[in-house]
């Protein structure tokens, strides 16, 4: 039996009920059998493994504010223009279709203006959009839609770039995120126009994918992929460039570039705002704030308390170090509470390579603490420049999480 609703063996039915019982404290009232079975199928109906997977995913969603991405997050302008890909149409099962055209992408140029974390946040945002579309399609079609189709087009892309540290870190981070938190959401992945070097790259990626996911991946060179796509996607749901009938309603582009971001050369002035905090006139696009420069001594941690007196505010920050990396995290202590909670997990940041910025949504009033951690350094102090600002809830501008 497939392990899907309506196709369960008696044993699978029993495991489903047991899973609901052991996960009673994790499941919401609207988490139906479709939801539970995705976690079970991802772990071959092993109840404890599926529970642990669900528990870790819920912790990830909480620590990264995933539930508020669709309402609180706006992609930074740099990434909105330059991170390729987009959503266009639906497949024959009713699920959304994502298309990622890698033509002429220059990863080194992209990484000058953003961090891997910036990209992963935007990719999580896109994952949440995909889930929302599935829910909308379920209501529209009167049948359950829980998967999506993805097309990766490597035409006119140098695969040597995919073997760089930045590229592998981003792809590895995304695949781990997707496999751990969006199980059984893939209908099919088409990888098309692959060059000869792709096999080397794919062998590095395979260990990050489970067996079920690998079975849903089809790889094509320059031929036969259009026929394969049209077996899964009707031509009126697919851009003309990829074998369908659609052109962009605004531009007439056969790639439907109003919906799917395609690579264009990055202008030098697009990098300006992120190149230096010293003398910068913004923090995440907010109004002018004063920066502070200090020395964080070896084996020490600088804590910067910030008072937030209006719930619904957003705390924004930006920082850089003169030489070498530094640890960074954010904690919060709600008003009237002695308990400190982590709202931005600790991470070593390469802030000597480019400024780091970000923000958190402050649901409760209280004291939020920016922590700059140099305790791991036995010999070096770090010259740190930082700035922060609290944006009140009355401000219409939405600041993007990093």
How would you describe what is shown here?
Residues 289-390 form the GOLD domain. Residues 75-250 form the CRAL-TRIO domain. It comes from Ixodes scapularis. The protein has helices at residues 10-22, 33-42, 47-63, 69-72, 77-82, 107-112, 116-141, 159-162, 165-181, 198-205, 211-215, 225-232, 272-275; strands at residues 85-90, 96-101, 148-153, 186-192, 217-219, 260-261, 292-296, 301-308, 313-321, 326-334, 340-349, 356-362, 366-373, 382-391. With 402 residues, it is α+β, with helices and mostly antiparallel strands. The chain folds into 3 domains: 10-63, Orthogonal Bundle (Helicase, Ruva Protein, domain 3), CATH 1.10.8; 68-269, CRAL-TRIO lipid binding domain (Phosphatidylinositol Transfer Protein Sec14p); 276-391, Jelly Rolls (Sandwich). The strands form 3 sheets. Strands 5-4-3-2-1-6 form a 6-stranded mixed sheet. The protein has a 4-stranded antiparallel sheet with strand order 7-14-9-12, with no helix packed on it. A 4-stranded antiparallel sheet has the order 8-13-10-11, with no helix packed on it. Helix 1 packs across helix 3 (47-63), helix 2 (33-42) crosses helix 3 and helix 7 packs parallel to helix 9 (165-181). It is globular and about 60 Å long.
The gyration radius over C-alpha positions equals 23 Å
- The DSSP helix count reads 13
- Name of the CATH architecture of the largest domain: 3-Layer(aba) Sandwich
Q: Note the run of SSEs as H and E.
A: HHHHHEEHHEHHEHHEHEHEEEEEEEE
Mean pLDDT: 90
């Amino acid at each position: 039996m497939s392990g899907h609703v309506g196709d369960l063996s008696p044993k699978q039915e029993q495991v489903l009920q047991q899973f609901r019982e052991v996960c009673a404290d994790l499941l919401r009232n609207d988490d139906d059998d479709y939801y539970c079975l995705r976690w079970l199928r991802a772990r071959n109906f092993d109840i404890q493994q599926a529970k642990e997977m669900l528990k870790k995913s819920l912790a990830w969603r909480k620590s990264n504010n995933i539930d508020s991405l669709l309402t609180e997050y706006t992609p930074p302008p740099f990434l909105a223009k330059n991170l390729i890909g987009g959503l266009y149409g639906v497949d024959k099962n009713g699920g959304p279709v994502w298309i990622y055209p890698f033509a002429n992408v220059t990863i080194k140029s992209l990484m000058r203006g953003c961090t891997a974390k910036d990209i992963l946040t935007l990719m999580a945002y896109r994952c949440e959009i995909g889930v929302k579309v599935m829910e909308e399609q379920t209501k529209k079609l009167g049948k359950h839609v829980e998967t999506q189709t993805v097309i990766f087009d490597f035409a006119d892309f140098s695969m040597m770039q995919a073997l760089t540290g930045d590229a592998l870190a981003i792809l590895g981070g995304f695949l781990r995120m997707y496999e751990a938190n969006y199980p059984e959401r893939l209908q099919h992945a088409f990888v098309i126009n692959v060059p000869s070097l792709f096999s080397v790259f794919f062998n590095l990626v395979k260990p990050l994918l489970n067996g079920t996911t690998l079975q849903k991946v089809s790889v094509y060179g320059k031929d036969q992929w259009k026929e394969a796509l049209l077996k899964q996607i009707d031509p009126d749901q697919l851009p003309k460039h990829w074998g369908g009938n659609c052109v962009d309603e605004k531009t007439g582009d056969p790639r439907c570039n109003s919906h799917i971001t395609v690579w264009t050369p990055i202008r030098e002035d697009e990098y300006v705002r992120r190149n230096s905090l010293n003398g910068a006139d913004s923090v995440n696009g907010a109004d002018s704030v004063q920066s502070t420069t200090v020395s964080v001594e070896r084996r020490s941690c600088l804590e910067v308390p910030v008072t937030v007196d209006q719930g619904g505010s957003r705390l924004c920050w930006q920082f850089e170090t003169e030489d070498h990396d530094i640890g960074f995290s954010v904690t919060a202590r709600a008003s009237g509470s002695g308990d400190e909670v982590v709202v931005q997990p600790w991470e070593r940041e390469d802030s000597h390579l480019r400024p780091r910025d970000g923000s958190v949504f402050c649901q409760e009033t209280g004291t939020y603490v920016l922590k700059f951690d140099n305790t791991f350094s036995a010999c070096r102090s770090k010259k740190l420049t930082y700035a922060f600002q609290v944006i009140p809830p009355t401000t219409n501008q939405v600041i993007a999480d990093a």
